[in-house]
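Students often ask why inverse folding is considered easier than folding. One informal answer: many sequences map to the same fold, so there is more than one right answer. In these notes we will look at a single instance of the problem. The structure comes first.
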């Protein structure tokens, strides 16, 4: 199969089953209102980015390997004297995934990386932001099989943000569960909709 004709497995699943099932489940009259994934953003904060150039370069390399896309540095927008940060200092690494790359990362996280998390019982439902997006943290980058454990000089965590087209947390929750995302099933109803 050529690269132009390739469709990620989860995108095929969304188009063939999830979209129609969610339309029925959420009582939507228009298929265009069915929630879908828009983008996934990965961030690693580097407190010592200015002082530790080697660690910064390794964080860029590791995030690029994990995501399959070149990661970029983020810089401080303002000075914070308590943390000895000046405006323009490197403070993190980020990458934003869309389209096929997003679905490939999402598939690898669900089927390969999340089962490798130590003492994993599902991700908390408290990660929804009230606008249909989900945020969670990963404590160790070594849960991804692409990372060579022998070459890691420091264990780093990262923040993952899953942005959906939904405006409500309940619809975004239904979308993530339909994909098989490892959320805890005992949802404590909150007032976020």
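Output (designed amino acids):
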């Amino acid at each position: 199969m050529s690269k132009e004709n390739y469709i990620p497995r989860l995108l095929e699943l969304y188009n063939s089953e999830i979209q129609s099932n969610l339309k029925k489940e959420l009582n939507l009259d228009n298929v265009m209102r069915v929630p879908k994934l828009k983008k996934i953003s990965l961030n690693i904060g580097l407190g010592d980015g200015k002082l530790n150039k080697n660690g910064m370069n390794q964080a860029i390399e590791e995030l690029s390997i994990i995501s399959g896309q070149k990661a970029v540095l983020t810089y401080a927008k303002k000075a914070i004297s308590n943390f000895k940060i000046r405006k323009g200092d490197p403070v993190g690494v980020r990458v934003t995934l869309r389209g096929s790359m997003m679905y490939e990362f999402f598939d690898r996280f669900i089927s390969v990386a999340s089962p490798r998390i130590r003492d994993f019982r599902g991700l908390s439902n408290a990660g929804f932001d009230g606008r249909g997006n989900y945020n969670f943290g990963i404590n160790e980058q070594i849960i991804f099989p692409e990372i060579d454990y022998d070459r890691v000089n420091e264990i780093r965590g990262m923040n993952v943000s899953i942005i959906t087209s939904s405006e409500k947390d309940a619809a975004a929750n239904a979308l993530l569960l339909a994909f098989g995302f490892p959320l805890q099933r005992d949802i404590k109803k909150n007032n976020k909709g």
